[in-house]
């Protein structure tokens, strides 16, 4: 069992504006892409770290990992062919604090990163952020008609606990569809 570091309220507040390093390598099967890191995540320095975020349980339930990883174990994704990045690297309390222009600039930077690292699939976690960042106002969940270079783009719901519309079972089903599609393509 991994012992979790729990930051103080002051440490969480002081994390505003920080960044969290990508978990990335060339030629990944799937590069998961959050909207931007939250304050708790930046305070502990690991992606999707806030208690209540369903990313790690969803990855396991969808078959990406053989157990629920702790956020501090995020680098264990790389040998499995998975990584993590964000549309916008700047930390905020909520993604609602991001201006549309910041999402658009983040989308352009993300496209450059995708071209450089060439994952097979970019899985964007948040349809609203994808619509704004890539000027796709009608985008829906699932495989997108437009990729980035040779990389397919797949949109999934944001696993944040704040996104109550999707429960863990539905998140797992949608993430599993991505995993099965990606595995069928090698």
Can you give keywords for this protein?
five-stranded mixed sheet, 186 residues, 7 helices, single chain, alpha/beta
Question: What does this entry look like structurally?
Answer:
- This protein has 186 residues and is α/β, with parallel strands linked by helices.
- Helices cover 35% and strands 12% of the residues.
- It is built from seven helices and five strands.
- The chain has a five-stranded mixed beta sheet with strand order 2-1-3-5-4, with helices on both faces.
- A hairpin with an 8-residue loop joins strand 4 and strand 5.
- Helix 3 packs across helix 7 and helix 5 crosses helix 6.
- The longest helix is centred in the middle third of the chain and has 18 residues.
- The protein is globular, with a radius of gyration of 15 Å.
- The model has no long low-confidence stretch (mean pLDDT 94).
Q: What is the radius of gyration?
A: 15 Å
Put simply, the count of helices is 7
Tally of strands: 5
**How many angstroms separate the termini?**
32 Å
pLDDT averaged over residues: 94
Return the string of H and E elements: HEHHHEHEHEEH
Taken from the alpha-carbon principal axes, the silhouette is globular
- Summarize the amount of helix as a percent range: 25-40%
What structural class do the secondary elements suggest?
A: alpha/beta
Q: What proportion of the residues form beta strands (DSSP E)?
A: 5-15%
The parts where pLDDT drops under 50 for at least 5 residues are none
Strand neighbour order, sheet with most strands: 2-1-3-5-4
Main sheet characteristics:
5 strands, mixed
